[in-house]
């Protein structure tokens, strides 16, 4: 009995060491910029870098657009599939899983081939067009997580019966969608939003190949040219992800609704 | 002309026809129950009235207006669902107010109507609660208030009590009936529970395989089942096979015992087999029991069911059950004992299909 308990603690300790020690090491290294003493100089250097601010701001903006347009695509799709086209569900699920199977670099080359300056839709001809393409590519990347989060939230409420109840009370589609369905899948929408945010903030391939000034390529640039700042940036990136995950937990805990199915 | 009319309604899903030539006239203020087993088409008919399903044939009219082509949100028909279907993001007040807000009523009107509805269901004190903070019975009462708030022409209740426990079901069904009578609203109630249908309906439609086997008042359905299905589905019934001995004199034999029926046997000849039905509560084995007909048989079992003791006796090839009201002094007959069941010949019904 005692040995089993000891082994369990040992397994936890090994796991914790495996995950935490590199983080502690990175954090400790990020504090060593000033010789002979610990300091936050690396963080100061990162935060005062104008490129950090501009790339971070750019990625934040792209994440925001990705979340908005992603939701506008995913929520009605998931709703419609649940309500009217349940037989299509496996097909939709398969499509949403494709970005996990197809490497980002293949997707972005596909985009460049389809939307280059000599194509029928030359999105890469302008900065705003390329930014739009970047948002679309982020939407594709976040689709597996976003769709599942929203679909799971829809499973928790009885979408079909709620829709019928609203219809029998005289409601039309916009009212049903925005007053009866959207608020009840908000936890799923926000979960998807935070995951999307975390993905967009760290994404490198799409932004680099579309040549946009995003946070991912900046991380790579700093990593290749500086010593202590990459460690500080790694810690900052971790903090952003953890913050997103924390908010996700908070949102699901504060959800005031419970499943209504009898 | 009746208020709600269903004329030659048909519904098929692919090759499967679930509703066949269904006809029904419902008067204003009437409470009609659709009763039948799962899959008999009762909910499909209800959903066609609500507009959630489109009939494959036939017409539905409400107050003389043909409902074909009208969407559910254009029909002014309230509906209560088995799964409550309250909007989880809205308080009780907002749930009840939803239909009124959609209809664009003024704030004052909404306030007063919602309060009126909440007082009707006696839940004024829970107006600020959310659905997940209510019990199942409370949720269903809110759903009822929500459906009634916009003053619908017809109220549809789709097995609203099925998800509740036994005691709440009884009290809520009485409450539903009381509210329906108070408001005088035309109501269609779908249930597979015969006790529910018998206790609160003005009329019952017993549905079988997509069509109405019998439409009538609860007592009529129970006492005079028109078909074998109605007889077996509504209440407990003894189905007895008998042989015609004298069709002119309405004489039949059950085993080797002769019985004269009150109901004419119709076009049968001697030697034919007829099916008869007898309710367990129709007869008695007590000494001095009244009745112009008697059947003797051997007791095969005797079960205590609380308020009654149900005894089964063998008569010829049939086994007949009969009930005795329980009392502290009651001594049920022993298995193997021969008893004589007395009943009135008019209680013996001929099942014609």
From TrEMBL, chain A:
ABC transmembrane type-1 domain segment(s): 56-251
Superkingdom classification of source: Bacteria
Main subcellular location of this protein, as a coarse class: membrane
Location of the protein in the cell: Cell inner membrane
Transmembrane segments: 7-27, 56-79, 91-112, 132-150, 185-210, 230-251
Keywords linked to the UniProt accession: Cell inner membrane, Cell membrane, Membrane, Transmembrane, Transmembrane helix, Transport
Alphabetical list of PROSITE patterns matching this protein: ABC_TM1
Membrane topology classification: Multi-pass membrane protein
Gene Ontology BP, a term: transmembrane transport
One Gene Ontology cellular component: plasma membrane
PANTHER family xrefs: INNER MEMBRANE ABC TRANSPORTER PERMEASE PROTEIN YDCV
Name of protein: Putative spermidine/putrescine transport system permease protein
Organism of derivation: Rhizobium subbaraonis
Automatic annotation (TrEMBL), chain B:
Record-given protein name: Putative spermidine/putrescine transport system ATP-binding protein
InterPro entries: AAA+_ATPase, ABC_SmlMolc_Importer, ABC_transporter-like_ATP-bd, ABC_transporter-like_CS, Mo/tungstate-bd_C_term_dom, P-loop_NTPase, Transp-assoc_OB_typ2
Any GO molecular function: ATP binding
Every ABC transporter domain range: 4-234
Keywords in alphabetical order: ATP-binding, Nucleotide-binding, Transport
A single GO cellular-component term on record: ATP-binding cassette (ABC) transporter complex
Keyword Protein biosynthesis: no
Keyword Signal: no
GO biological process: one example: quaternary ammonium group transport
Family recorded in the similarity comment: Belongs to the ABC transporter superfamily.
PROSITE patterns membership: ABC_TRANSPORTER_1 (PS00211), ABC_TRANSPORTER_2 (PS50893)
Lineage: superkingdom: Bacteria
């Amino acid at each position: 009995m005692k040995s089993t308990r000891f082994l369990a603690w040992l397994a936890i300790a090994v796991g914790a060491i495996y995950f935490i020690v590199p983080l502690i090491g990175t954090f400790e290294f990020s504090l060593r910029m000033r010789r002979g003493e610990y300091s936050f100089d690396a963080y100061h250097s990162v935060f005062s870098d104008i490129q950090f601010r501009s790339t971070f701001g750019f990625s934040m903006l792209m994440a925001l657009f990705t979340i908005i347009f992603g939701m506008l695509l995913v929520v009605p799709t998931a709703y419609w599939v649940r309500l009217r086209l349940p037989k299509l569900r496996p097909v939709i699920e398969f499509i949403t899983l494709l970005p996990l199977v197809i490497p980002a670099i293949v997707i972005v080359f596909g985009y460049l081939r389809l939307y280059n300056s000599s194509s029928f839709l030359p999105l890469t001809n302008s900065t705003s067009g390329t930014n739009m393409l970047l948002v679309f590519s982020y939407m594709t990347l976040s689709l597996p997580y976003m769709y599942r989060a929203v679909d799971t939230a829809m499973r928790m409420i009885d979408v079909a019966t709620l829709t019928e109840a609203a219809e029998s009370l005289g409601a039309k589609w916009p009212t049903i969608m925005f007053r009866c369905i959207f608020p009840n899948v908000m936890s799923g929408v926000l979960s998807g939003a935070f995951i999307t945010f975390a993905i967009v903030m760290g994404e490198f391939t799409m932004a680099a190949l579309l040549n946009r000034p995003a946070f991912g390529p900046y991380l790579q640039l700093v990593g290749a040219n500086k010593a202590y700042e990459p460690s500080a940036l790694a810690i900052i990136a971790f903090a952003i992800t953890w913050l997103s995950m924390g908010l996700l937990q908070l949102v699901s805990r504060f959800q005031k609704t419970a499943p209504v199915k009898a | 002309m009746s208020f709600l009319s269903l004329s030659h309604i048909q519904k098929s899903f692919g090759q499967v026809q679930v509703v066949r030539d269904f006809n029904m006239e419902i008067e204003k203020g009437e409470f009609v129950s659709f009763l039948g087993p799962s899959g008999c088409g009762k909910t499909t008919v209800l959903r066609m009235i609500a507009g959630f399903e489109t009939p494959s044939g036939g017409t539905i009219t409400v107050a003389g207006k043909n409902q074909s082509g009208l969407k559910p949100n254009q029909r002014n028909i309230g509906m209560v669902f088995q799964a409550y279907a309250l909007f989880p993001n809205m308080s009780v007040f907002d749930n009840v107010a939803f239909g009124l807000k959609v209809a664009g009523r003024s704030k004052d009107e909404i306030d007063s109507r919602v309060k009126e509805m909440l007082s009707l269901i006696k839940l004024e004190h829970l107006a600020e609660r959310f659905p997940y903070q209510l019990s199942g019975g409370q949720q269903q009462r809110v759903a009822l208030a929500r459906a009634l708030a916009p003053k619908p022409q017809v109220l549809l209740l789709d097995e609203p009590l099925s998800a509740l426990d036994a005691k709440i079901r009884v009290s809520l069904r009485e409450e539903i009936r009381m509210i329906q009578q108070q408001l005088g609203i035309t109501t269609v109630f779908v249930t597979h529970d015969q006790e529910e249908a018998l206790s609160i309906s003005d009329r019952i439609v017993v549905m079988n395989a997509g069509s109405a086997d019998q439409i009538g008042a609860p007592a009529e359905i129970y006492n005079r089942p028109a078909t074998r299905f109605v007889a077996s589905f509504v209440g407990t019934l003894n189905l007895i096979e008998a042989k015609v001995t004298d069709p002119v004199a309405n004489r039949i034999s059950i085993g080797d015992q002769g019985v004269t029926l009150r109901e004419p046997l119709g076009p049968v000849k001697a030697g034919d087999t007829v099916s008869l039905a007898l309710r367990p509560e129709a007869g008695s084995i007590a000494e001095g029991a009244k009745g112009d007909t008697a059947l003797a048989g051997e007791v095969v079992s005797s079960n205590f069911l609380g308020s009654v003791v149900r005894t089964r006796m063998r008569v010829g090839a049939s086994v007949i059950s009969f009930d005795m009201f329980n009392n502290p002094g009651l001594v049920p007959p022993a298995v193997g004992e021969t008893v004589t069941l007395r009943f009135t010949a008019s209680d013996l019904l001929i099942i014609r299909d």
